[in-house]
Amino acid sequence: MKKTKEMEVLFLPTEKGTIKLYVFGFKAPRSLGRVIATYHDVTFELKGYKRNKTIIKALAQIHEAIVNNQDI
Fold first, then answer.
1. Is 3 exposed, middle or buried (0-12, 13-18, 19+ CB in 10 A)?
2. Is the pTM of this model over 0.85?
Protein backbone atom coordinates (compact mmCIF):
# COMPACT_ATOMS: atom_id res chain seq x y z
CA MET A 1 0.00 0.00 0.00
CA LYS A 2 1.26 3.46 -0.89
CA LYS A 3 1.55 6.02 1.88
CA THR A 4 0.39 9.51 1.09
CA LYS A 5 1.95 12.43 2.86
CA GLU A 6 -0.45 15.07 4.05
CA MET A 7 0.36 18.67 4.72
CA GLU A 8 -1.73 21.45 6.21
CA VAL A 9 -1.10 25.02 5.06
CA LEU A 10 -2.12 28.05 7.11
CA PHE A 11 -1.97 31.58 5.67
CA LEU A 12 -1.89 34.48 8.12
CA PRO A 13 -2.27 37.86 6.39
CA THR A 14 -0.41 40.84 7.86
CA GLU A 15 -0.10 44.47 6.81
CA LYS A 16 3.25 43.89 5.09
CA GLY A 17 2.79 40.37 3.71
CA THR A 18 1.60 36.88 4.49
CA ILE A 19 2.97 34.38 7.00
CA LYS A 20 2.74 30.84 5.66
CA LEU A 21 2.75 27.83 7.98
CA TYR A 22 3.25 24.33 6.61
CA VAL A 23 2.30 21.62 9.12
CA PHE A 24 3.36 17.98 8.63
CA GLY A 25 2.63 14.99 10.87
CA PHE A 26 0.91 15.17 14.27
CA LYS A 27 -1.58 12.48 13.13
CA ALA A 28 -1.51 10.14 16.14
CA PRO A 29 -1.30 11.34 19.75
CA ARG A 30 2.30 12.00 20.81
CA SER A 31 3.60 11.58 17.25
CA LEU A 32 6.41 13.73 15.94
CA GLY A 33 5.46 16.54 13.59
CA ARG A 34 7.12 19.40 11.78
CA VAL A 35 6.17 23.04 11.22
CA ILE A 36 7.77 25.31 8.62
CA ALA A 37 7.04 29.03 8.98
CA THR A 38 7.93 31.48 6.19
CA TYR A 39 7.65 35.24 5.90
CA HIS A 40 9.28 36.81 2.83
CA ASP A 41 12.85 35.40 2.87
CA VAL A 42 12.81 34.29 6.53
CA THR A 43 12.15 30.60 7.18
CA PHE A 44 12.05 28.61 10.41
CA GLU A 45 11.58 24.86 10.79
CA LEU A 46 10.61 23.29 14.11
CA LYS A 47 9.90 19.73 15.19
CA GLY A 48 7.80 18.74 18.16
CA TYR A 49 5.25 16.40 19.65
CA LYS A 50 2.49 18.90 20.46
CA ARG A 51 0.95 20.54 17.40
CA ASN A 52 -0.35 23.76 18.94
CA LYS A 53 2.78 24.39 20.97
CA THR A 54 5.03 23.85 17.95
CA ILE A 55 2.97 26.24 15.80
CA ILE A 56 3.12 28.90 18.53
CA LYS A 57 6.90 28.51 18.83
CA ALA A 58 7.28 28.93 15.06
CA LEU A 59 5.16 32.09 15.11
CA ALA A 60 7.17 33.43 18.05
CA GLN A 61 10.43 32.94 16.13
CA ILE A 62 9.00 34.69 13.06
CA HIS A 63 7.85 37.55 15.31
CA GLU A 64 11.31 37.89 16.87
CA ALA A 65 12.91 37.99 13.42
CA ILE A 66 10.50 40.72 12.29
CA VAL A 67 10.99 42.81 15.44
CA ASN A 68 14.78 42.52 15.41
CA ASN A 69 15.13 43.18 11.67
CA GLN A 70 12.92 46.07 10.57
CA ASP A 71 14.03 45.65 6.92
CA ILE A 72 11.79 42.59 6.46
1. exposed
2. no
